[in-house]
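Figure S7 source data.
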Amino acid sequence: MEVKIKNTVIRLVLGDITEQDTDAIVNAANAALQLGGGVAGAIRRKGGPSIQEECDRIGGTHVGGAVITTGGNLKAKYVIHAVGPRMGEGDEDRKLADATINSLKLADENNLTSITFPAISTGIFGYPLERCAALMLRSAREYCERNTRLKLIVFCLYDQSAYNEFEKVLQN
Ligand code: AR6
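Tokens for the predicted AR6 complex:
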């Protein structure tokens, strides 16, 4: 499903984020920018070693921050590495909103017009999916109300139950 907010479409898809052909895909990263499991592992395997090498040159960023690298062998030209919170570390909602907004800003600053997000922090980092859906979709909607050149923001959900949670929120 999709909705249009001003000039930007927000779309939900079910599938593997590494198959998405938007200008950028977002990695659910850690602050050290070391590509581990989950989304990061899939990006490392399909994108090749250049992405980790670029991350190593950048060195790291704060929780809630985002950095950009090229996409190596991926269909997407760029990977935006967004650092979500680990559940239990405190101030998780603000950090997840920051990670979402900072990714969108970085896409705009690099003149990108399309971006795909995973459900950041809801795997290894343990953040509840329902809360993630509400927070990431609200952040994206609010961002679309402002000035953005982004035409398409995709949320790529890995299984049907995650898709259903995002759909429930986007319908309201
Ligand atoms: N495509 C789309 N979604 C996926 C994919 C995929 N290929 N694989 C997993 N998901 P996670 P986090 C979903 O664990 O919780 C790594 O070690 C998954 O079902 O990737 O932010 C990093 O290096 C879940 O809903 O990210 C960090 O250290 C969501 O994507 C740490 O994990 C996020 O799961 C980040 O943990």
